[in-house]
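2024-03-11 09:14:02 INFO receiving multi-entity request
2024-03-11 09:14:02 INFO entity count = two
2024-03-11 09:14:03 INFO echoing inputs for audit
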Amino acid sequence: MGLAFTISHVYKSYHGKPVLNDCSFSFEKSGTYILTGPNGSGKSTFFRICALLEDPDRGDVNYLSEGSAVAKTIELRRRITLLLPRVGVFNTTVFKNVAYGLMIRGINRDEMTERGMKALDFVGLKHKTNQKALTLSSGETQRLGIARAIVIEPEILFLDEPTASVDLENTEIIEDIILKMKKIGKSIVVITTHNMVQAERLADWLLLMKDGKIVQT
Amino acid sequence: MDAIIEGFGKAFFLILHLDPELLSIILLSLKVSGTALIVATTLGLPLGALTALKHFPGRGFIISVLNTSMGLPPVVVGLFLYLLLSRSGPLGFMALLYTTLAMIVAQSILAFPFVAALSHSAIIKIDPLIKKASLTLGATSLQVTTAIVREARYGIMAAIIAALGRVMAEVGAILIVGGNIAGFTRVMTTTIALETDKGNFALALALGIILLMISFVINMALYFIQKKGALQT
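2024-03-11 09:21:47 INFO inference complete, emitting structure
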């Protein structure tokens, strides 16, 4: 078992409005956790805090590796990845977008090519390698975002509504990608969705965000 | 009319025969403006990026000063520099007046706000999702900044070219601080002014034609960069 994490009594509010309210949960086993809940229930805030992009007002997010606490450094941040509902695409080729995470980690060119092509193949975009990323459809852009996230082999992957803005065909493709990732099964994948059928299909654990707290259903 | 035709004839003769005086003036112009552009970019781009990416006290004031400075009259810059560098001025001991270095300083001051303010505009327009994408993929602060600046590259190139256009055509500041000394500080624009006064239209026209050609190339480059940037965003 690689990286695991626990959030303990986390509070977060914006402009005086509480979003997370004494939120606690442990993500200890590898597998797919599906987090559902109505709009504005705090799912995205929860993700940003867990991905160390934002600090909670109170409470802690603790990452553990082999039972020991891991310091919140850039090294830890590089073991976690968050895919946002809207993918920020760099104005360059599809391949260079996918390779970005490897490039900033100083991975050599040969390994970068091999891993980049493998990730593109995994999401069905290998034939678009040299295409300008900004010309991709929204579904393809979302798949590019997934390729860019998985190429760096994160131990914890957060997917924030990965199918919210894509058509049915791409939703099915993305669900299949997530199921393929489940089969590899080395990491913790946490996904938010409103689609209960999708949630049932993909989940190892089904969670609900309610009143700023996570409850297991 | 005859004088104009004769002037153009002599001008083309000088250009076609690569007149040594003409060439030395052109090379000095390119050296002064090119160096000034490097200085302005080295200082202006980081400031443009800083004001676009960070919020700090006085940021709005700096942006306003930069935008205002784009309209700085070159003669006023020349006058202030002259007062600073003249023998009785606070920097007079450096003996920089009537040197190419003084001309480079003058042109750097004129180009700097163009590079900084237009780079700021280019960088601030970049989609915030780029920053988020870099961060979520494990980028350091420096890598995030690099990613954003890279995204703004077409706008930044346009800023640098606009600054080059500004300094290449400038005459007031370098005439005051350079002194227009033959073989030392005489550049295209100052030579045109001097030779016109003297009635030597051939050299003035030859330099005018070259200056127009350089200006045309700069503007074409600017057009293509902006077009490429527009196509890709």
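2024-03-11 09:21:48 INFO post-check: Residues 83 and 89 of chain B are 6 Å apart (CA to CA).
2024-03-11 09:21:48 INFO post-check: Chain B has a mean pLDDT of 91.
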